[in-house]
Design brief:
heterodimer, A: mainly beta, seven-stranded mixed β-sheet, four-stranded antiparallel β-sheet, about 0% helix, B: mainly beta, five-stranded mixed β-sheet, globular
Chain lengths: ~110, ~110
């Protein structure tokens, strides 16, 4: 059983388009995250939601908008895609209390042409 | 910025023990040390976590000296499948430091 699943696995689109990436976790965790891993392999946190509430919002362009319909889902919508948005986006979850480790999905590779 | 410093890369051969050291000179009293492993085209995977002394699980051991300013991830008898990037993170239960990944150490295991 997949613990943290993301769809799609690959996403190729043109500049200016709007796209969404979906994430679901079946671990019963109350906190979910979006990370971006660029071509240099740096993993940077973008957002964190705890029980559907935004608790971390790093310096990310407001073209990126996370949405959490319930605590098992955290979707990422990106407006007006730019070339620099090309990266691998990882969803993760954890139990918000204490120092629970992060559980990651296998990523969505976004390519903007 | 990450609170940790690791070697960029390491090479090893199958069957050897590999020790990856992470420096965290500014570790705070409440900070834990957590290690993750990332294979190509996959998300990072939790390996081990500790606060002080030594922690061992079925995958690795984590050695933390008394001053906690560094930690060493020990992988016994590595195989080719241990080729991956290993990340060391430090942070406390409530802060965001524990979510910040540094550059990691790229371990290459040769036959």
């Amino acid at each position: 059983d997949t613990a943290v699943s993301q769809t799609p696995k690959y996403l190729v689109t043109q500049m200016g388009n709007d796209k969404s990436i979906k994430c679901e976790q079946n671990l019963g965790h109350d906190t979910m995250y979006w990370y971006k891993q660029d071509s240099k392999k740096f993993l940077k946190i973008m957002f964190s939601y705890n029980n559907k509430e935004l608790i971390i919002n790093e310096t990310v362009p407001n073209r990126f908008s996370p949405k959490s319909p319930d605590k098992a889902h955290l979707n990422l919508h990106i407006n007006s895609l730019e070339l620099g948005d090309s990266a691998v986006y990882f969803c993760a979850s954890s139990q918000g209390q204490r120092n629970s480790p992060l559980h990651f999905g296998n990523g969505t590779r976004l390519t903007v042409t | 910025l990450a609170k940790t410093t690791q070697p960029i890369s390491m090479d090893s051969y199958e069957g050897q023990e590999v020790n990856i050291t992470c420096s965290h000179n500014n570790i705070a009293t409440n900070d834990y040390i957590t290690w993750y492993q990332q294979f190509p085209s996959q998300g990072p995977r939790f390996i081990i976590q500790g606060y002080k002394t030594k922690v061992t699980n079925e995958v690795a051991s984590l050695f933390i000296p008394a001053d906690r300013k560094s930690s060493t991830l020990s992988l016994p008898r590595v195989s080719l499948s241990d080729t991956a990037v290993y990340y060391c993170l430090v942070g406390d239960w409530y802060g965001t430091d524990k979510l910040i990944f540094g550059t990691g150490t790229r371990l290459q295991v040769f036959p």
